Structure prediction request, 383 residues.
Amino acid sequence: MSNHAVLSASSSHRWLNCPPSVRLEEQFEKITSVYAEEGTLAHEIGEIKLRKELGQINQKELVDRLSKAVDSDLYSKDMTDYVDVYVDTCLEKFNEAKAATADAIAIVEQKLDFSKWVPDGFGTGDFVVIADGTMEICDLKYGKGIAVSAVGNSQMRLYALGAITEFEFLYDIQKVKMTIIQPRLDSISTDEITVEELLTWANEYVKPRAELAIKGEGEFCAGEHCKFCRAKAVCKARADKNLELAKYEFSDPNTLNNLEIADILSKVDELISWATDVKDYALNKALDGEEFEGFKVVEGKSNRRYTNIDEIVQILREHNFNDPEIFKPSELITLTNMEKLVGKKKLNELIGDFIEKPPGNPTLAPITDKRAVFNKAKEDFKE
Prediction:
């Protein structure tokens, strides 16, 4: 079994809705973000703390393992505070289960195999609690960009399938609870489903789509699940869906009515997101040497800035400019306002050596743009 499942539980919302996207994505490099690395570290700290609370490691092991974890550049004191919310919630779930069932068990970082329904499907349940007739799976989401709900969550349901497969011969599980704990958003979400309902979903919905996905077959389907797809910038299905707006049939050829405006507003965020993804993709490819007819890479806009505040303040004071004039209230006024106060020519004479205009970030522009073609080698040399 490989380290990363092709049809992963975390990306299941996408491949269940758009089966062929899985194979299309393979053409694009998978890049790990700092946010994913932060999440991995938070999970590690949570695992260590839970194992100590459950008596699986002693105090020395706790200290040794935590010392290594907090030595990471990604660690912050806030991370411990947020992870503690997750740990406390998991322990509360376990204590509630023990109150109802004396022999309730809790398992940390349980490997889960749901390959009966998804080819090579496997994952890890952060915290699993099993009591009389009920199993609960808790999952830590350390991110704070988007609130993730457990309701109808396919990742959690696949984990539940794996847990049922693992423990059905030992326990009579009738119902599954799935809880997502997102401490940085102060969010705890829980969903509940019977084992019968879960198996029906797995057999009738998941399995046929997984079989299509692993073969790269089925229909491409654009939607909000495209957000984290590596092929989102060049996917034709997504382009077609967004370009539908350009073909909008208006009741009045000259003006929009309120209903038409409302309809456009409901689509415009995704349209902007798609256009941004396409522009970013094209820019990165252009920087690597690829060409797009009618476009070139140029240096983007940038703002001037002060370089030595102390020297600037001293010079201006020596030329009889008072602090109330040059500060707002504790920072220097903007360069534009400073030029109005001192005069453009005189300001350049006095502090021109302490003003710089950094290079702008590269950007795509029409070939007719008067700016020179961006020199990537020159910028790399500066670095």
Q: What stands out?
A: Strands lie at 105-113, 122-131, 134-140, 175-182, 187-194, 295-299, 305-306, 355-356, 362-366. The chain is about 45% helix and 15% strand.
